[in-house]
Amino acid sequence: MLPETTQQKVKAYELRKTEEAPLLNLLERTRGELVSLRTSKVASAPQIKLARIKVVRKSIAKILTVLNEKRRGAAKDLWKKKKYTPKDLRAKATKAKRSGLSKFQAKSVTVRAGKKAANFRLRKYAVAE
Q1: Tens digits of per-residue pLDDT, 9-59?
Q2: Which of 18, 33, 53, 120 has its CA 20 to 30 A from that of 103?
Q3: Cα-Cα-Cα-Cα dihedral of 23, 28, 34, 40, to 10°?
Q4: Is 96 inside a domain boundary?
Q5: Whole-angstrom Cα distance, residue 59 to residue 2?
Q6: What is the pLDDT, as a whole number, of residue 129?
Q7: How many domains is the chain partitioned into structurally?
Q8: What whole-number distance in Å separates Cα of residue 25 and Cα of residue 81?
Q9: What's the burial of 26, exposed, middle or buried (CB within 10 Å: 0-12/13-18/19+)?
Q10: Residue 65 falls in which region: left (phi positive, over 0), alpha (psi -120 to 50) or beta
């Protein structure tokens, strides 16, 4: 499923289908190719190799992204049933939402406020026209 040589662009959806070990091998090969391309660039190689550097860099980024997605997904599945989850696996949201009160905390009132609300309810008036 994985491309034998990294001559063509690496597709992320193809990488997601593969296991982690082949991805690591492919990452090692593409990094080696990048090193060889950079050394040939210094040795004033043709422009084709210079254009190839960008493609290889992007493919390395795609491989690393897919590896990170797989590892994070596995970690999220591992921590799903636990009481607490690590901070890097929690939902990001916004700082206001993360640090804000929960629904239960927002609804709760003190004893004094509860008594006052019970004793002095809002009056309802029927207005005749």
Answers
A1: 889 999 999 999 999 999 999 999 999 988 888 877 666 678 889 999 999
A2: 120
A3: -140
A4: no
A5: 12
A6: 74
A7: 1
A8: 33
A9: buried
A10: alpha
- Print the domain residue range for 76: 12-82
Query: What is the amino acid identity at position 67?
Result: L
Residue 20 tokens, joined:
């982690």
Residues 67-88 pLDDT 10s:
999 999 999 999 999 999 998 9
Q: Examine residue 115 and state whether it is found in any structural domain, yes or no.
A: no
Inside any domain, residue 4: no
Q: Taking the mean position of all CA atoms in its chain, how far away is CA 36?
A: 31
56: domain CATH number is 1.10.287.310
Phi, psi of 3 (to 5 degrees): -70, 135
Structure tokens at 57: 């860099």
Q: Give 3: exposed, middle or buried? Use CB within 10 Å, 0-12, 13-18, 19+.
A: middle
Q: What is the pLDDT of residues 101-111, one digit of tens each?
A: 999 999 999 99
Q: Which amino acid makes up residue 81?
A: K
In a domain, 31, yes or no: yes
